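task queued by scheduler; priority normal; single chain, no ligands, no partner chains; default sampling; output format set to structure tokens
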Amino acid sequence: MLRISRRPAGYPVSLDEAKALLRVSGTASDALISGLIGAATAHCEALVQRAFVPRTFQWVLAHWRHVIEIPIAPVAGDAIASIKYVDWVSEAQQTLDPATYVVQTRGDSVRIFPKFDTCWPVLFSYAPEPVVIEFDAGYEDIDDLPPNVKAAILLQIRHLYSLGGRDPGLVKDSVIGVSEKGWQASADVAKMIPDAVTALMLAEVW
């Protein structure tokens, strides 16, 4: 289980940028659009297992692995804050001494393993959270993000905002002589923007 213990302070796309894209003036929709910015960013991150904005994660493991590979990038070697585990004898959580393990950086990913001629301590695996690794991930400077990432997030915001509203990409579903069912996304447009977002993110797969 990967969870966030410190939320991001901001996102790659500002509220003003999103409103300009959506041609929205005034402040009535600010809360909605701010939520869409976060949702679009999370969607693009999930497509490629990358963190675009800096924040702190906790990764919970049920058991030790011979080599622990952090499942998200970018992570710096010095961004591993702590490794906590539940000791077999005391059944209490302990913090592993950093001197007993190696943090190896490969590009912007990180691997962790015991130092030579040592092994992981004996674990009480029946605990709810036997191992918890806390680390920081994300681009320290959002300006360092590749331009395709920001373009993908903007497209996803546009897609989410258009759903359920009157938009050139929406069609009215009606039955002559009966009733109108309102506005629905046409099949082609509904698929076109998500496909474009995925294509833009392919370069970020690691």
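post-processing summary
- Residues 2-52+143-204 form a domain with the Hypothetical protein yqbg fold (CATH 1.10.3230.30).
- The chain has a mean pLDDT of 87.
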